[in-house]
Design brief:
Radius of gyration: 22 Å
Protein name: Amine oxidase domain-containing protein
InterPro entries: Amino_oxidase (IPR002937), FAD/NAD-bd_sf (IPR036188), Flavin_amine_oxidase (IPR001613)
Structural class: alpha/beta
Shape: globular
CATH architecture of the largest domain: 3-Layer(bba) Sandwich
Bound molecules: flavin-adenine dinucleotide
Pfam families: Amino_oxidase
Binding site for FAD: 15, 218
Keywords: Oxidoreductase
CATH topology of the largest domain: FAD/NAD(P)-binding domain
Largest sheet: 7 strands, mixed
Number of domains: 3
Length: 429
């Protein structure tokens, strides 16, 4: 008889590996199946010419749930927090960013009245009870916070920075403000990139008996309902069949629907098929030096652009003088991307901040269209997610799109812990 696993985790990204670690105390047999050659998913770090590139700019929230859960699992998170401040860039005009006290009082982007409104807006972010804004879009919330167009514009940029979402009229104010609160408590850039977190999670899971398989794709999930329980038959792309009592699926929503095929309950089908991912374009750059070492962070004001030097705060190269930075464009849902022109836009943005950077280039990588989060968190998603999740007993969903209240790594990690707790409770009862 083929072995029946207690739990199969589909996907060996951050969420899958956190799920595996949360199950290690349970005595349940756990198998992680990852379709990529490497584990880590979008949280992996690539070494290119010995320079460590995360998949675009990655920052972990210092006071977030993800960091706290990772630390409970014994994951060591080394790295430093970038200083608040930097620049706001409107066309080619540079202003001090009002993200620290000096910036607030010196920036020419605001007049005195707007400065006061900006301070009130920052206090408002911290004091907002997010449950009270679950029916509002982020844009509605921003318009309610300040009547000044300049203050609104900076709030919208800050929302993009905190969440990567660039659809303020549609996204849930509750989710965006929750993430904004987390960002305002600071972030860290990790030494060794996010791979350091992935490697520790992977090694710990393996040491505690989790089995892992890479380069294998799950094609189908077949639920087998009986009066007592549900079990699952999983079919891999190579035709192999695997039997399990529980599944944690960490794939995106469309992949999940494909794997379930006709067994996807209609409550899932309609909602999951409509979900749109959060997309962006990233230019990851390694330089031998920065032409202007004082410029470490900048946000576009009307252009949805980001620039940050990560290596000042995290070890990302064997040579401590080398510079690793990211330039990023936040894309709107359905935005058509002409790769060459977006690359040029990012390079020109970098040129505005670091004139002559090209002559110091060691290597760079441009990714024109990447999924940052599998779900753009729309107003109203919260209730629909709650009602569609438990649709198949024994099938648990985790990943950055599955949490009603958060996104990004915050959701990937917390939803994995929730899924593991759910399975442990089910198996005990
Ligand atoms: C440019 C960029 C910047 C980001 N910045 C931040 C940031 O600053 N802060 C933050 O918190 N988050 C950030 N994120 C988001 C963060 O990286 C993700 O939310 C997180 O890594 C998602 O983890 P996950 O496990 O849910 O999904 P994934 O990493 O996508 O993992 C899912 C895994 O499942 C595998 N898989 C899929 N289908 C199958 C199948 N059929 N069979 C087997 N395996 C399968 C995939 O190969 C993948 O490895 C950023 C992401 C990007 C792209």
């Amino acid at each position: 008889m083929a072995k029946q696993w207690d739990v199969v985790i589909i996907g060996g990204g951050l969420s899958g590996l956190v799920g595996a670690n949360c199950l290690t105390q349970s005595q349940l047999s756990v198998l992680v199946i990852e379709k990529g050659k490497k584990f880590g998913g979008r949280a992996r770090t690539d070494s290119i010419n010995n320079q460590l590139f995360n998949i675009g700019p990655h920052a972990l929230y210092k006071k977030g749930e993800a960091k706290s859960i990772l630390e409970q699992l014994g994951i060591e998170l080394h790295g430093k927090s970038p200083k608040l401040g930097g620049l706001l860039i409107d066309e080619k005009v540079k202003y001090s960013a009002p993200f620290n006290p000096i910036g607030v009082f010196t920036t020419c982007f605001f007049n005195w009245k707007e400065r006061m409104q900006w301070i009130k807006a920052l206090v408002k972010i911290l004091n907002t009870k997010t449950d009270s804004i679950s029916q509002q879009s982020f844009l509605q919330w921003v318009e309610g916070v300040s009547s000044s167009k300049s203050v609104q514009t900076v709030l919208l940029s800050l929302g993009r920075l905190a969440t990567y979402c660039h659809a303020p009229a549609h996204v849930s104010a509750k989710v965006i403000v929750t993430q904004l609160k987390a960002v305002m408590s600071g972030v860290i850039y990790l030494d060794g990139g996010w791979q350091s977190m992935i490697d520790q999670l992977y090694n710990k899971a393996l040491m505690k008996g989790t089995e892992v398989r890479s380069h294998q794709t799950v094609k189908q999930i077949l639920p087998m309902f009986s009066e007592k329980d549900t079990a699952f038959d999983i079919t891999l792309a190579n035709g192999e069949s695997i039997s399990t009592r529980n599944i944690i699926s960490t794939t995106g929503p469309r992949e999940l629907l494909k794997m379930l095929g006709e067994y996807a309950p209609s409550v899932m089908k309609d909602f999951f098929a409509q979900m749109e991912p959060v997309k962006g374009a990233t230019l990851d750059v390694a330089l031998t030096k920065l032409p202007d070492p004082s410029k470490l962070f900048a946000l576009g004001i009307h252009a949805p652009l980001y620039y940050s030097v990560h290596s000042t705060y995290a070890q990302l190269s064997e040579h401590s003088n080398n510079v690793i930075l990211h330039v990023y464009k936040y894309l709107q849902p359905d935005e058509l991307v002409e790769a060459k022109s977006v690359q040029l836009e990012l390079e020109q943005f970098l040129e505005t901040i670091q004139p002559g950077w090209k002559q110091y280039e060691i290597t760079s990588r441009f990714i024109p269209y990447i999924t940052v989060n599998e779900r753009l968190p729309l107003v109203g998603d919260e209730l629909r997610l709650e009602s569609s999740k438990p649709a198949v007993p024994g099938l648990y969903l985790s990943g950055d799109w599955t949490s009603p209240y958060s996104i990004l790594s915050e959701a990937a990690v917390s939803s994995a812990q929730q899924a593991a707790i759910g399975i442990i409770q089910k198996e005990k009862s």
